[in-house]
């Protein structure tokens, strides 16, 4: 079964990519991860920590409330992920002001095959205190298990956005769509993905907003209501948790070549492009990027046969404070620079 998204020429001109993570989408998708018996290794540590955190006093009731609305699989109410919100508090304000007719429509669809509890029926009827309770539960849940993970979420999403920006710059919108991760498949004029049921979504000139999400895994997600502005949420690359880098690793950043690399990666570059910028071999550029990545300064995303690197928010802040030595200056030679020692590339570029 598949979801098929049909584009016109007007739709291709209206494809947009959100800036930064959408924290309400992350919240809703994380609830599914929290309840799922099977999740990728890269999310298991978060799930274990979150389950422990949510046993704290005052969090069990908000969690039960939210997991009533969002299960491990299946539909959830669209009003939990409002559009055109910037930041967590404004997004929750949008949830608090959801119109009664939207509540009734969304909840009727989600609970069409099961009997809702009484508080959900009151919520569908527009009872203000029930809607406030949902927003309060989202805030409490987010503060407990998402805020501590926010840097990891931001780095993963920004890394994906760097890849999409690279594709858009070098190949246009179709290259952007063609480069989206599996199971998404672009065969003009249709973007197709595996999906729980067969569905055709005709954009009809409305365009499509792409939302990369850390907690999305497996199949991409879209809104239930076909009349809403079209959104497609897709998974970003995540790395399995690794041991924290030893303090001595940070000292390796003090060399000129890695400082140059960090400055260069304020814009996304492939390993080959980074090597050309630095004047080093491809394996050397790959190692420099790996050290920066281990220290949380660079995010790397594989895109087919290419690995694209981009500075994380922390890396961009540090890049702005690192003076670059000029060639020929005393100490400008980086003793860790292996620019002439490698002759073979061992990984995709």
From TrEMBL:
Stretch list, region Disordered: 318-349
Pfam families (UniProt xref): HTH_5
Keywords carried by this UniProt record: DNA-binding, Transcription, Transcription regulation
Domain of life: Bacteria
Transcription listed as a keyword: yes
Domain HTH arsR-type positions: 252-327
GO molecular function: DNA binding; DNA-binding transcription factor activity
Regions of compositional bias (Basic and acidic residues) in chain numbering: 331-349
Protein name: Transcriptional regulator, ArsR family
Organism: Actinacidiphila rubida
Phylogenetic placement of the source organism: Bacteria, Bacillati, Actinomycetota, Actinomycetes, Kitasatosporales
């Amino acid at each position: 079964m598949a979801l098929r998204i049909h584009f016109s020429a007007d739709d291709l001109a209206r494809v947009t990519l959100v800036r930064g993570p959408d924290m309400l989408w992350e919240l809703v998708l994380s609830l599914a991860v929290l309840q799922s018996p099977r999740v990728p290794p890269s999310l298991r540590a978060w799930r274990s920590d979150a389950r422990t955190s949510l046993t704290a006093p005052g969090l069990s009731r908000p969690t039960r409330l939210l997991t009533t609305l969002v299960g491990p699989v299946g539909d959830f109410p669209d009003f939990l992920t409002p559009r055109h919100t910037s930041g967590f508090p404004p997004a929750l304000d949008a949830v608090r002001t959801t119109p009664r007719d939207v509540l009734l429509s969304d909840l009727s669809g989600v609970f069409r095959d099961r009997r809702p509890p009484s508080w959900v029926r009151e919520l569908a009827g527009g009872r203000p205190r029930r809607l406030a309770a949902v927003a309060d539960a989202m805030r409490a849940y987010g503060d407990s298990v998402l805020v501590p993970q926010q840097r990891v979420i931001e780095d993963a999403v920004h890394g994906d956005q760097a890849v999409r920006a690279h594709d858009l710059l070098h190949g246009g919108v179709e290259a952007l769509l063609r480069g989206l991760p599996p199971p998404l498949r672009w065969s003009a004029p249709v973007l197709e993905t595996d999906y729980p049921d067969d569905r055709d979504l005709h954009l009809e000139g409305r365009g499509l907003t792409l939302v990369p999400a850390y907690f999305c895994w497996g199949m991409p997600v879209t809104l239930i209501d076909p009349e809403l502005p079209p959104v497609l949420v897709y998974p970003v690359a995540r790395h399995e948790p690794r041991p924290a880098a030893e303090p001595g690793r940070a000292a390796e950043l003090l060399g000129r070549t890695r400082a140059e690399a960090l400055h260069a990666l304020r814009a996304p570059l492939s390993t080959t492009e980074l090597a050309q910028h630095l004047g080093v071999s491809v394996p050397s550029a790959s190692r420099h990027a790996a050290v920066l990545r281990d220290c949380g300064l660079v995010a790397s995303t594989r895109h087919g046969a290419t690995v694209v690197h981009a500075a994380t928010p922390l890396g961009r802040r540090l890049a702005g404070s690192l003076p670059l030595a000029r060639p020929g200056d005393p100490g400008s030679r980086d003793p860790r620079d292996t620019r002439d020692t490698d002759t073979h590339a061992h990984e995709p570029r």
